[in-house]
Recover the amino acids of this structure.
């Protein structure tokens, strides 16, 4: 599945902030139909966007037929209600054969979908809570990375780093730098040329390194590449607010081997979070109490993430934290047009979940990532994830055998089996159902997809 | 009276009747032993007649259609354990041999057997028939895994009531179900117990056939398999396991440890997931305690003042006797009352540990200690961070705060009852002119209440409890009963609100 290279017909159900943002970005090059239940809102949009608008319930087959789903290439369900979006995709699949994209808030739907990647008749799913948390965690955890992409439901990560003059790994061999079991050093780009590194390859300043591995090993590697900017265990990270975004942020930080603190005001929710997050210190208190913040040394924290339910509270906490001396403050902003305001008053990063979601969907429609592909360095190489079919010619062979039989530039970055990370070694035998994350030169991509 | 009392005691009576009827089946085993050795069969025939008569009377007079609620389950559990012990004492009375012809002693021996304590009042082992001694072993095997789990396994019609009974017997909130039906789960666990018992018989008799254990004949192999996997501790030999070769003693150490491992874990380990054992935090904790205390005992024994033991014998005696006490079995490979004081105190301390929850052991059990220790560490942390919420986790799973409170209450209550019993033993002993020492009194109180068996001094492993006054022995009968069903089912029966409101 590749992106929208020619003008296609897209039906967007749900004309809230997300739907409108996507429509705005797609409208110039594509035929867009925007469906929303609110008639007045739809009428208004008709004059703001160059799209066809339709008032009606997106879960109704009649409405979708009227919107032209039968001939549509893509349906994007982007209302604020998860179940409406899932039913919309299911309904669309009974009418025609469009590529369906669903926006969901709750991670449980995303996890269900990942089990088959076809559940609910959804072809691509974007979970706003997870995506937002991932964005926050990438900003916090890997500030030195120029690109970070999750694979295999987040169990595998690819990251790209620029090696600077003062990086401790400059001048080291790859074997010296990559001391982590579950990390694969996939490639080096030097002056625009791709080098598949051997253990003896020396890393030079100005190189760009591509690594693939578990989130924790990527985090540790980042700390080795850029110790000054990458947080480690000693760094104090405080998450305020046990909302779903706060929870996923803490959980993903745990996965990278960091030890955040999470402050939640509701006692029952705090207990629930403490049970779910063994690596996080959960505290039950009102985060706007400055006395508490000082007692728990939040003033000395390196990073504070404010993920409370309302913009007012997020702003208050962020301003308080800045005032008592927290180094970096990241805040969730619920209303998109406040993002700039937050950043103007000195909050380091303001993130709006709806914008994050809309950007992800738009990016997807442009690039096309059905199999999860990251394109590297002017299309010289790609990192892609493949699920091995039972009749795949790769099944039953060891990674060494496959490497020896293929002349193209290719590196096995990671394997996940039954949703568990497997370290790829020469003797690892691939099985049907394995997800492999491979770094491969672009010329060989189509051939490799054929083999899987 | 009825209408005032809100317990549907009729339902409990019906169940008790059924249990007594079924009790006739295991009684046939010593009967056959008696026939084989040409010994009197009358003790068992009388007992079978009594249990069938009482059982039938209760069964058919009571309304068995009623469901077992939590209160009825408490009543049934407490009464069944007592009544089965009482019936189990009848063969000793009818046989009329030795010290256990006395009613209090007969009940003491039967209760000590059924509760897998292993404290004995047999004066002279030689005067008893082999069938009577085999019955003594068999009672322990029946009590090993808990009678109510056996009841649940047999009466599949109990359904939900079975879960109620098993939870009451083991004082757990949720019986881990291996299958959706609780009776099928009970049957799986009992099948496992039976299979392990047969395996132990094979191992012990196998040692005999290999010439490594001359006196471990089939009779002894069966008798000791009954009381080792059930961590119970009776032996037909007056010298306990000291009567057998070192090979037998080494073989019994892993058997006792197996009996004190959670049967659910053993089930999973046998069914293809052996690593589950090591992933279980309670198991690791338990094995850790075993290793540390065994090493400590061996180190202390190495400086044995009176008898010269070789290196191998020191390790063997230290490990065997420590395992025996830790697992609440109560075997002895030698008279540990001759050990240096420090060694005896180590044994005394391990009495309070017990085995894993869901095993055949008694005492406080390692899961409770693990939770107590972890909660203590957690509370130290929250003293510094008053706003921190830190759940106590066992094997990674959070433990409810209410469960933690129950566990603290249970541990405290156990210690209070132990102190009260010690006090009673000392005072009653002084009244009767026996004057047990403090350590003897503490040892005997802990050993009976925590269902271990032998104690120190006059109640040592090569001695018996006859030295204590009859009143003390009568009180110990009640406390063995109380300790085995984990206190609560008995104590609630003595609260007013149990019977009313």
């Amino acid at each position: 599945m590749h992106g929208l290279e020619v003008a296609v017909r897209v039906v967007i159900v749900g004309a809230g902030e997300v739907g409108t943002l996507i429509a705005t970005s797609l409208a110039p090059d594509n035929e867009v139909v925007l469906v929303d239940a609110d008639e007045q809102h739809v009428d208004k949009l008709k004059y703001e966007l160059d799209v066809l608008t339709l008032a009606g319930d997106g879960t109704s087959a009649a409405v979708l037929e009227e919107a032209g789903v039968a001939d549509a290439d893509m349906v994007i369900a982007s209302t604020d209600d998860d179940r409406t979006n899932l039913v919309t995709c299911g309904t669309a699949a009974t009418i025609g054969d469009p590529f369906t994209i669903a926006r969901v808030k709750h991670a449980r739907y995303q996890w269900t979908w990942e089990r088959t990647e076809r559940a609910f008749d959804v072809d691509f799913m974007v979970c706003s809570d997870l995506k937002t948390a991932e964005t926050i965690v990438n900003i916090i955890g890997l500030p030195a990375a120029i690109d970070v992409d999750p694979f295999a439901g987040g169990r595998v990560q690819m990251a790209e780093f620029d090696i600077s003059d003062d990086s401790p790994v400059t001048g080291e061999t790859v074997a010296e730098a990559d001391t982590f079991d579950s990390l694969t050093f996939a490639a080096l780009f030097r002056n625009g040329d791709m080098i598949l590194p051997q253990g003896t390859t020396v890393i030079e300043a100005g190189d760009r390194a591509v690594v693939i591995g578990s989130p924790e090993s990527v985090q540790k590697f980042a700390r080795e590449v850029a110790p000054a900017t990458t947080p480690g265990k000693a760094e104090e990270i405080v998450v305020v607010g046990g909302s779903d975004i706060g929870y996923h942020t803490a959980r993903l930080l745990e996965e990278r081997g960091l030890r955040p603190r999470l402050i939640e005001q509701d006692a029952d929710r705090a207990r629930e979070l403490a049970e779910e997050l063994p690596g996080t210190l959960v505290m039950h208190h009102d985060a706007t109490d400055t006395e508490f913040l000082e007692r728990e040394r939040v003033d000395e924290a390196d990073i504070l993430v404010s993920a409370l339910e309302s913009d007012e509270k997020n702003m208050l906490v962020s301003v308080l934290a800045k005032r008592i001396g927290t180094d970096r403050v990241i805040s969730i902003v619920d209303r998109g047009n406040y993002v700039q305001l937050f950043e103007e008053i000195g909050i380091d990063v303001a993130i709006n979940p709806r914008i994050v979601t809309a950007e992800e969907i738009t990016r997807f429609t442009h690039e096309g990532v059905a199999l999860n592909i990251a394109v590297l360095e002017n299309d010289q190489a790609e990192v892609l994830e493949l699920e091995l079919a039972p009749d795949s010619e790769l099944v039953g062979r060891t990674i060494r055998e496959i490497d020896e039989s293929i002349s193209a530039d290719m590196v096995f970055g990671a394997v996940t089996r039954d949703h568990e990370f497997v370290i790829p070694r020469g003797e690892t035998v691939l099985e049907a159902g394995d997800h492999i994350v491979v770094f491969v030169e672009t010329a060989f991509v189509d051939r490799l997809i054929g083999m899987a | 009276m009825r209408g005032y009392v809100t317990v549907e005691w009729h339902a409990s009576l019906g169940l008790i009747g059924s249990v007594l009827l079924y009790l006739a089946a295991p009684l046939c085993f010593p009967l056959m032993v008696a026939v084989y050795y040409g010994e009197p069969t009358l003790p068992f025939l009388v007992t079978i007649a009594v249990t069938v008569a009482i059982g039938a009377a209760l069964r058919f007079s009571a309304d068995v259609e009623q469901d077992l609620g939590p209160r009825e389950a408490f009543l049934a559990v407490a009464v069944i354990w007592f009544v089965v012990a009482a019936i189990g004492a009848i063969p000793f009375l009818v046989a009329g041999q030795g010290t256990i012809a006395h009613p209090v002693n007969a009940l003491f021996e039967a209760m000590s057997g059924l509760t897998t304590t292993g404290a004995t009042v047999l004066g002279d082992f030689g005067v008893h028939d082999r069938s009577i001694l085999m019955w003594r072993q068999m009672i322990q095997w029946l009590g090993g895994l808990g009678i109510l789990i056996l009841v649940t396994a047999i009466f599949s019609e109990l359904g939900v009531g079975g879960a109620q009974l098993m939870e009451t017997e083991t004082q757990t909130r949720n019986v881990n179900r291996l299958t959706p039906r609780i009776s099928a789960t009970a049957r799986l666990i009992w099948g496992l117990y039976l299979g392990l018992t047969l395996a132990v018989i094979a191992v012990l008799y196998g040692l005999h056939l290999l010439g490594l254990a001359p006196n471990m004949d089939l009779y002894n192999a069966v008798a000791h398999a009954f009381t080792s996997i059930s961590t119970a501790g009776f032996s037909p030999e007056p010298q306990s396991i000291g009567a057998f070769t070192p090979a037998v003693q080494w073989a019994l150490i892993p058997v006792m440890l197996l009996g004190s491992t959670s049967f659910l874990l053993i089930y999973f380990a046998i069914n293809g997931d052996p690593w589950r054992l090591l992933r279980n935090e309670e198991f690791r904790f338990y094995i850790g305690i075993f290793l540390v205390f065994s090493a400590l005992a061996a180190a202390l024994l190495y400086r044995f003042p009176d008898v010269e033991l070789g290196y191998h014998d020191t390790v063997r005696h230290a490990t065997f006797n420590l395992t025996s006490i830790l697992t609440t079995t109560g075997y002895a490979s030698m008279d540990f009352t001759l050990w240096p004081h420090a060694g005896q105190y180590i044994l005394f301390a391990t009495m309070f540990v017990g085995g894993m929850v869901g095993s055949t052991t008694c005492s406080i059990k390692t899961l409770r200690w693990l939770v107590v220790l972890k909660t203590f560490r957690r509370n130290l942390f929250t003293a510094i961070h008053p706003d921190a919420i830190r759940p106590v986790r066992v094997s990674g799973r959070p433990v409810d705060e209410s469960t933690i409170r129950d566990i603290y209450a249970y541990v405290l209550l156990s210690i209070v009852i132990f102190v009260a019993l010690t006090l009673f033993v000392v005072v009653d002993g002084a009244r009767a002119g026996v004057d047990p020492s403090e350590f003897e009194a503490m040892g005997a109180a802990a050993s009976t209440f925590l269902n271990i068996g032998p104690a120190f001094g006059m109640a040592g492993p090569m001695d018996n409890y006859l030295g204590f006054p009859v009143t003390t022995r009568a009180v110990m009968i009640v406390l063995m009963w109380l300790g085995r069903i984990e206190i609560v089912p008995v104590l609630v029966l003595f609260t007013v609100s149990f019977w009313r409101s």
In short: The mean pLDDT of chain A is 85. The two ends of chain A are 15 Å apart (CA to CA).
